[in-house]
């Protein structure tokens, strides 16, 4: 077999494998009609948003860490949220105590408004958008 024939044979085989790989493997018969059932819409917007915490779980003058979010309540009824990733070397902050958000890796601390209280963190924690919906704090 010469080079041209070998290349042509390889191209045909590759095309056949590609076509076979793209074929439908659906368990649904080809004659089945598409589902036209209308989607149900939930009228509660809080359920559509990611619920991060309940307002009662966040102490005034303190905060909580939930997933990758730090939620604080510097003053009664005023909630703020930040990324839990420290701006020094990317460690996760692990505590909110004594009015400070604390990083265990190199000792950086942040005020409840996310600004640096003590380094080596070079800048404030990244803000996150939240809103209060009834007694829940949700991502906005």
TrEMBL record:
<dbReference type="GO" id="GO:0046872">
    <property type="term" value="F:metal ion binding"/>
</dbReference>
<feature type="region of interest" description="Disordered">
    <location>
        <begin position="23"/>
        <end position="58"/>
    </location>
</feature>
<feature type="domain" description="Rieske">
    <location>
        <begin position="43"/>
        <end position="139"/>
    </location>
</feature>
<dbReference type="GO" id="GO:0016705">
    <property type="term" value="F:oxidoreductase activity, acting on paired donors, with incorporation or reduction of molecular oxygen"/>
</dbReference>
<dbReference type="InterPro" id="IPR017941">
    <property type="entry name" value="Rieske_2Fe-2S"/>
</dbReference>
<dbReference type="InterPro" id="IPR005805">
    <property type="entry name" value="Rieske_Fe-S_prot_C"/>
</dbReference>
<dbReference type="GO" id="GO:0051537">
    <property type="term" value="F:2 iron, 2 sulfur cluster binding"/>
</dbReference>
<comment type="function">
    <text>Iron-sulfur subunit of the cytochrome bc1 complex, an essential component of the respiratory electron transport chain required for ATP synthesis. The bc1 complex catalyzes the oxidation of menaquinol and the reduction of cytochrome c in the respiratory chain. The bc1 complex operates through a Q-cycle mechanism that couples electron transfer to generation of the proton gradient that drives ATP synthesis.</text>
</comment>
<keyword id="KW-0411">Iron-sulfur</keyword>
<keyword id="KW-0408">Iron</keyword>
<dbReference type="InterPro" id="IPR036922">
    <property type="entry name" value="Rieske_2Fe-2S_sf"/>
</dbReference>
<dbReference type="Pfam" id="PF00355">
    <property type="entry name" value="Rieske"/>
</dbReference>
<dbReference type="InterPro" id="IPR014349">
    <property type="entry name" value="Rieske_Fe-S_prot"/>
</dbReference>
<feature type="compositionally biased region" description="Basic and acidic residues">
    <location>
        <begin position="38"/>
        <end position="50"/>
    </location>
</feature>
<keyword id="KW-0732">Signal</keyword>
<dbReference type="GO" id="GO:0004497">
    <property type="term" value="F:monooxygenase activity"/>
</dbReference>
<keyword id="KW-1015">Disulfide bond</keyword>
<protein>
    <recommendedName>
        <fullName>Cytochrome bc1 complex Rieske iron-sulfur subunit</fullName>
    </recommendedName>
</protein>
<feature type="signal peptide">
    <location>
        <begin position="1"/>
        <end position="32"/>
    </location>
</feature>
<dbReference type="GO" id="GO:0016020">
    <property type="term" value="C:membrane"/>
</dbReference>
<keyword id="KW-0479">Metal-binding</keyword>
<keyword id="KW-0001">2Fe-2S</keyword>
